[in-house]
Amino acid sequence: MLDRSRPLKIVLASLLFLVGVFGASCIQPTPGKSGPLSAVEREAALRRIAAEYAATGNLPQARSELDKLALANPAQLLVSLAEQDVNAGRPPSEVAPLARLAEALGSRSPKLIAYLTPTSAASSIPPSLAPATPTAVATATRPAASATPAPTATFTAQPTASPTATPQRPRVQADNVANLRAGPGTNYPVIGQLRAGAEYFISARNANGDWWQLAWEGGAQAWVSGMVVRVLGPIDAVPVAKEIPTPPPSPTPAPPTATPQPAGPDFRLVNVRLWSVTENGGRYDGASVHCGEKHELYVRVTDAAGAALNGVTVKGVYSGEERVTGSKGPGVAEIVLWTGEDVFVVRDVDGRSVTSDVARGLTTQTHAISDAALIAAGYCKPETCAHFRSQNGCTGHYSWDAVFQRSR
Length: 408
Fold this sequence. Notes:
The chain is α+β, with helices and mostly antiparallel strands. It folds into 3 domains: 39-116, no CATH class; 125-138 and 169-244, Roll (SH3 type barrels); 267-406, Immunoglobulin-like. Helix content is 24%, strand content 21%. A 5-stranded antiparallel beta sheet has the order 7-6-5-2-8, with no helix packed on it. The chain has a 4-stranded mixed beta sheet with strand order 9-18-12-15. It has a 4-stranded antiparallel beta sheet with strand order 14-13-16-17, with no helix packed on it. The radius of gyration is 28 Å and the shape is globular.
C-alpha cells in the first residue's frame, strides 16, 4: 500500500535539520567576548599579534591589538612567553616573532638575544652612527623597517653558530634631547646635544659609573649623564677613562654679609623613596613580579613643622622643567620620569630664589637602582636581585617620592 504521508515526513525532517544547524551556529562563542582573558587565550592572542607583526612590520597595528587585550605590561609578557619557549626547546622560528615584537616595544632579554642572534644575517643594530658636529645637535640614522619584512628577518638562527661571533658594542640611546658635556659632571660646559632616539657607542666611563664617554667626531671627549640615556648592550668591560678633564673652577663666593645667615640650605631633602610594585600599578604572580606602567616623580614640600606647602617651585636638573606644588595635591608637584631625573627647590611661595639640597638618582633604569631600594619596594629579594637586574626587570617603569622640608 502506498504511504501518502512519506513526502511530508521527508520535508519536515529536512526543515528540522536546517533549524538545528542554524541554532548551533548562533551559540558559538564570539571572538571578541568581553571579560578578562584566560591564560591560554592571552597566550594565543600574544602569539597571533607577534606573528602578524613579524609578517607586516606594522608596529602601530601591533600596539593597537595589544591595547585591546588591556594588559599591564604586554612587552614584558612577550619576553616571558619567548623565554618559556626557549626553555621548552621550541625552534627559533617560533621564538623570534615574540622576541622581535618585545624588542620593538622596548623590552630586551639577554637570554633571547644570545639564543636568537644570527651568525651571518644583518644585525638590527647599525654598525655605526655618524655624529653631528660638536657644536650642533647630534643626529643619528636609525635603520628603517621594511614595509614587508620576512617573518624572521631579525632573529633567524643559522644551523651552525659562529664560534667567533662579535659581541654587541655598548652604546647609549636618548629618549629625549640630552646635553653632551666636556667632562663627567654638570659643572662642565655643554658642547652639543643628542637628539631623541639617537644612539652612540660608549668608549669609557667615569669612576662612579654614572657618566659615559662617547665616541665623538674628531676624537674630542663628549660625556653624557647616565640619568638621561638608556644603556644598551654589555657594559661590564667598559673601562674607566684614562684622561678626564679638570673640572672648571667654581665661582668665587661673595663676601659674607654683615648679618650671617644660619648654616644650611633653605630647603633640606628629608626622604627619597622608590614606590612599591603595587603603588606603581604592578602586581605579583607567585614569586614573579608583573611591572606597573607608571614612571612618575612626586616632589613633596613641607614647612619647618611638616605642614604641606603650596606654591613652591621645584625644578628638574636634566629636563629643566619647573613645577609648582599644589598642582598634584597639597604640597605636591609631579614630574614625569623618562630615564631619570635629579630635582631641587628653586623658589619659595613668595617667588624668592632659595637654596636647596638636590635629590639625586631618581632613575627608571634597573641597573642604576640600589639593591636596598629594590628590596624595600618589593621588586626582588637579596638572593634574586642579581637575576632581576640582569633581566633589566621593569626598566622604564619605576616611580619615586622626594620630600623637601623648609629649614626655617
